[in-house]
Amino acid sequence: MKKLRSQEWFEGVNPDVFTSRSWMAAQGFSREVFDGRPVIGICNSWSELNNCNAHLRQVAEAVKRGVWEAGGLPLEFPVISLGEVFMRPTTMLFRNLMAMDVEECIRANPIDGVVLLTGCDKTTPAQIMGAASADLPSIVVPGGPMLKGYYRNQPIGSGTDVWKFEDLRRLGQLTDEAFVEIESCISRSAGHCMVMGTASTMTSLAEAMGLTLPGAANIPAVDTRRYAQAQESGKCIVNMVRNDLRLSRIVTRSSIENAITVNMAIGGSTNAVIHLVAICGRLGIPISLDDFDRISRTTPLIVNVKPSGQYMMEDLFYAGGIPAVIRQIGHLLHTEVLTATGETLAMAYRNAEVYDENIVRPVSRPLYPEGGTVILKGNLAPRGAVIKQTAASPGLLRHRGRAVVFKDRRDMLDRIHSADLDVTADSVLVLKNCGPVGGPGMPEWGHIPIPQKLLEQGITDMVRISDARMSGTSFGTIVLHIAPESAIGGVLAIVQDGDMIRLDVPARALTLEVPEEDIQKRLGNWSRPAPWYRRGYGKLFLDHVEQADRGCDFDLLLSGPDDTLAARDFARSPELE
Q1: Among residues 7, 6, 27, 9, which one has the least CA distance to residue 17?
Q2: Residues 362, 556: Cα–Cα separation, whole Å
Q3: What is the tens place of the pLDDT at every residue in 449-479?
Q4: Where are the domains of the chain?
């Protein structure tokens, strides 16, 4: 085994080492714990403000048992936690901040390998992004989904069913009392959303990339197997350090393509597109939206989980989880890639089985012949937009309609349910200024509600377009992530009421039917809105955030020639040698 990085802090006799070891002694550690033991950082995003990650203290204890068992020294450290429900305007505004927190904590401390404890939507990609930039041996330990909800003996899921119940309440078909009763039934444990939202998607893709132990992604948060898996992960990371199995050896172009393929097969969140692109940017892996569309065309949707299907994440785990998915689509994957186990994907998943083919279907009997996420382009989205076709209405996948435009979310909330709103079922609802700069932070505002007067007519879906994101738990014929966004002068900025918009998902096209010379004239008269922030992290975000097609990361955090941890590691001062 090569010399451990932590030995720069703990080996030898000099004032630097004296101070490091004596400070550890103050916590009750004997000197012997430094004798050749890899120091394993446990990066914990636990927070009482984030129910998804509220149990990660206990998960960390299980990881420590495994690290000690394998001969390592576990040292837990906190990073900010991004709780999707509470944080405003959006956790996406702070994903890059968390990634910076993770990266700099790893770089600055005597750590040889790191265990990433993740759960809620942005915590998984943020921690992977930070660890990718530091590039030490790294393993992800997901917190797992919460138990599925039940209401009057019917399973219900966060997000997906909430929107449906809210529509029933607006129609007077569900009382406020019943709505509150459902509130007490839906979230039954710690853990992240129990449908295939962004949290479940990103932990599943972490496994698909090889960054977890096999089967780790979908174990329910409160299942004792979650803690057994965490202990095994603690043992695994020590072996990864001894074999110098760095994150960059696991996350390669091929493993990213595996993650995209699995995302299409599981009906994963549209947000995965942004996060995978951002991870690639940290490692210098070339990727484009065209790669997502190419893989989508050849990958069937086989996982029958809401919002694209019927069941919950708990059911997917019982059906075999991501190992079962890999078993069904192995012929579409790069099975030669390395995983955290040190084995190839083929070897690590050689014993995978499918226990319920109604939940993890064979490719010969898919829910949908193509992947869930589709990339659209056209004059309205020259750099791309996304739609989850498997959660859309088939009859709207080809549609031409008159634009009903909202200048921002406040405008939309003020007018969407007005009896005077000039809207029909064929209209296309257009929401501006909700992108990375305009939101700010690209909030999950793309799930524009159906106008009240149309809902009362029995309309449950219509085409909606914005530069926002939407929750992975959402559904509907909703076009998102339009790039470039309206707040920086994308064509979306000049769409007017009455303009005709054509959506053609099979042709991957999104078109504003306005002559090019008129578009350019409107753009010439357009003025940029005032910035949301003039100081602090908010200003840093606005000054450096990339557009959705480039992952919404900061331009100053993308991979460069001098970005390796070795190039930035701080050695001892020469005078102390």
Answers
A1: 9
A2: 43
A3: 999 999 999 999 999 999 999 988 888 999 9
A4: 25-148+188-348, 150-185, 373-524
